[in-house]
Amino acid sequence: MEDMKKSTQLIERVQRRLSLALWGRSLFISFVCVLTAYLALLLFSRFSGYLREWFPPESLGIVVLGSLVLSFILFRKPEKEQAARLIDQNQGTKDLFLTVIMLEKAIGNYKPLVIQDAEKKATKIKPATIVGYQWQKRLATSCAGAVLLFLVLEYAPQFDPFGEVQAAEVEQEKAKEFQSTKKATHARLAELKNKDTGQSDEESKDVKMAVENLKSDFRKMTPGKKQENTKTLAGHQKSLGGKWRKIAEEKMKSLMMKADQSQKFGGMSKNEGMKKWNKELQEGSTQSLMKEMDELKEQLERLTKETDPVKREQLKNEIQKKMKEMESFAREQTNSKAMAAALKRAMKQMQMAQSKGIKPDEAFKEAMQSMDLAKMELKEIAQSAKDMKKLEEALKVLQMAKKVNDKSGLDGEACENCMTLEDYEELYAQMMGNMPGDGTGGEGQGKGGKVDEEDTGDKGFKTEKSKSAITAGKVLLSFKTKGLSDRGEAQKKYNKLFTDLKQGMSEAIIQEQIPPGYHDGIKKYFNSLEKKTEENATKK
């Protein structure tokens, strides 16, 4: 067979251009189809409120990807016969090039003539004249459609005739809130796990070290160095008192105030359960509350496995009620914002199990995590109560040590066998009991007798009346007129004012964060006033 290089190359080049042109046409048709379908669904979503989650800004990529995929599906690569026939139609060569591609199967002596004629004409034909690219109009149309689609997506108003948009927004907010509560719980759990709470000891390391330093200095006391001893004890008193006030102010103030108001002045807690929890926490115990929380966790686990809708709803209501009581106790009684927040998150996470965008198993799992966090926060409160109790004990022993030092001087050698604060308290109590009193009799081992007084000489005293009120801002009695008052009226006013003043003083003890070493003296003073008042009333 003679050489057909030029004609064959022409047919192949025309075939490639025809393939590209046909694929471009398929791509344009695909783009128009996909864009139309996307725009129709988008308009349906905007007017009805359905399928709203299908159309974020990133969804525009679906149009491009869909157009490419559909164009390859629709595209059919042209054969050589189709390219040759197109050349013949365009150049009017009467099937010359179609005959060229069939010469291998043809029989006859005319082949050389056909090849010669095809090669001669192939040199004069340009493939671009056979297959032209008409891309400008299609590209302009595609750009216009893309711009229209973008404008509709960004600026078309969203209607909500069936309330679907509002419901979807509520679910979306719940999902965001759930993730936020999840992060908060895990962050706080990590913080508490890395924190030294002193759970293995009666008190935290900081308090334990302060008490050990105090006991160490007790053993170093010298009887002949009262001033040095006093200075050392004063330093410990300042340090221990500061730690006590810090814990009371930051963590235990509300708990102490509730206890003081309910126990000292006849108040009552909201219910007996909270009263019991309150009392235990003051003693550093969390037994009842921990038991309640463990039962709640067991109920949550049962709730995840319960299939009966009626029993499931009853169990859920019971859990929510208990959680609400604990959250109220944490917020109102202990003032523990962290514990209240953990319990509140547990309630929310349990409720979120019904949301469409949140898996129920995940929601219940996070609720149990929040319950674990609440237990750890409870241990923090109990630890603070233990620390305060230990500090109160240390301050009490320190006060006794100061009294012994003022009288006879402290001797550290007497403390060699003392190991605990109770040992020191017992030792100092014995030493105080053996000390002679310097007063005129009464409590203790006083020497008795009359106190010598010197009545001669000018003492500089002035006879005048104090202008200050003797009660909390109210005048007990006025002397503007002569005569007797109504019998019993002044006594009633005095009793009322005295009760109010006593109540205010009790609150002031807590609010001012006065260490417990001074509480007894204040209470004894008011009790003595009350006793004298009762005696005077009896005499009258």
Automatic annotation (TrEMBL):
Q: Which residues form a coiled coil?
A: 279-332, 374-401
In this chain, composition skew of type Basic and acidic residues spans 188-198
Q: Where is this region: Disordered?
A: 177-205, 221-240, 436-465
Q: What is the protein name given in its UniProt record?
A: Chromosome partition protein Smc
Q: Where is the composition biased (Gly residues)?
A: 436-448
Which spans are transmembrane here?
A: 20-42, 54-75
Lineage, top-rank taxon, reads Bacteria
Answer yes or no on keyword Coiled coil: yes
Q: Which UniProt keywords apply?
A: Coiled coil, Membrane, Transmembrane, Transmembrane helix
